[in-house]
Amino acid sequence: MNNNTASILILVFLAVTFIQSGYDKIFYWKDNVNWLKEHFSKTQLKNKVPLALFNILVLELISGILCIVGCIQLFLNSGREFGLYGAIFSCITLIMLLFGQRLAKDYDGARTIAIYFIPAIMGVYWLN
What we know:
Keywords: Membrane, Transmembrane, Transmembrane helix
Organism: Flavobacterium shii
Order of helices and strands: HHHHH
Number of strands: 0
Subcellular location: Membrane
Radius of gyration: 15 Å
Shape: elongated
Distance between the termini: 21 Å
Membrane topology: Multi-pass membrane protein
Structural class: mainly alpha
Protein name: DoxX family membrane protein
Number of domains: 1
Number of helices: 5
Helix content: over 70%
Largest sheet: none
């Protein structure tokens, strides 16, 4: 059995999380922008929602792709570079999402993001 099973499972979890989220943003862009404009209507982001959403989309896709490549690399030759970068980008993406939720005073949403941060930071730790 591969010695990297836990790391691979965390990377799969992060890849599914971010690829699915990116897919949702791409194919339901208008719905996401409309919902987020309301969500951030009382914040400094109220006039920057499409740009902020695009930035998050790019980070999510980078995170997800790096995690997929990291899984493949770990499985094939136990290389850790791409998985580590995927976990780091996942943490950065989650911190940006957390910042947005806190800014919008959505503390339940922020708490949910903190839950996702736990496996992401575990991935950074294990792959470092």
